[in-house]
Amino acid sequence: MRVGLYPGTFDPITLGHVDIIRRASMLVDRLVIGVAINRDKGPLFTLEERVAMIEAECAKLSEQTGTEIVAHPFENLLIDCAHDVGATMIIRGLRAVADFEYEYQMVGMNRVLDDSVETVFLMAEAKHQAIASKLVKEIARLDGDVSKFVTPLVNQKLKERLG
């Protein structure tokens, strides 16, 4: 069984994330969405809320693709999380060259820690390349329309949270 791990904070999950999840699910039999517990980032949504949004969005994708997609909170090293869930592939989404530079360093470190876990980069579709959770939250905080960047469920959750 091919198991992939797609890690992130997903605060909140965006259409860019959903695009990467959909395409990654074609590469594996089981896709684990690693939801990072990063207390330093001060997320807008709780871990439980982020997991619930991911599960709701991924249920549809799982039905469409036939791939098992599960959310898995983690707070340890990414490579240790990969071991915990039995992943042999880490999936990372790229939007721009700046993403690649950071990810390139991460791959190098992870390969030193365990060279049996491969990292696969997927480029976001052009229409999703500018989407970043941080920017979505900023637009939503300033009462802007984020419906082009998130699903209707996430849009509603942002409105509820931010008023």
Model description:
With 163 residues, the chain is of the alpha/beta class. The chain has a single domain, classed as Rossmann fold. The protein is built from 6 helices and 5 strands, in the order E-H-E-H-E-H-E-H-E-H-H. Strands 3-2-1-4-5 form a 5-stranded parallel sheet, with helices on both faces. Strand 2, helix 2 and strand 3 form a beta-alpha-beta unit. It is globular and about 45 Å long. The termini are far apart. The model has no long low-confidence stretch (mean pLDDT 94).
Topology diagram in text:
Layout: E1 3-8, H1 15-24, E2 30-36, H2 47-65, E3 68-74, H3 78-85, E4 89-94, H4 97-113, E5 118-123, H5 133-141, H6 152-162
Parallel strand pairs: 1-2, 1-4, 2-3, 4-5
Shape by Cα distribution: globular
Q: Would you report the number of β strands? A: 5
Distance between the termini: 44 Å
Question: Which residues sit in consecutive blocks of at least 5 with pLDDT less than 50?
Answer: none
CATH topology (fold) name: Rossmann fold
Per CATH, the architecture is: 3-Layer(aba) Sandwich
Helices and strands, in order, run as EHEHEHEHEHH
The CATH homologous superfamily is named HUPs
Structural class: alpha/beta
What is the CATH class name? Answer: Alpha Beta
For the sheet with most strands, the description reads: 5 strands, parallel
Strand order of the largest sheet: 3-2-1-4-5
Approximate strand percentage = 15-25%
Using only CA atoms, what is the Rg?
15 Å
Number of domains: 1
Counting DSSP H or I runs of 4 or more residues, the number of helices is 6
State the helical fraction.
Answer: 40-55%
Mean pLDDT value: 94
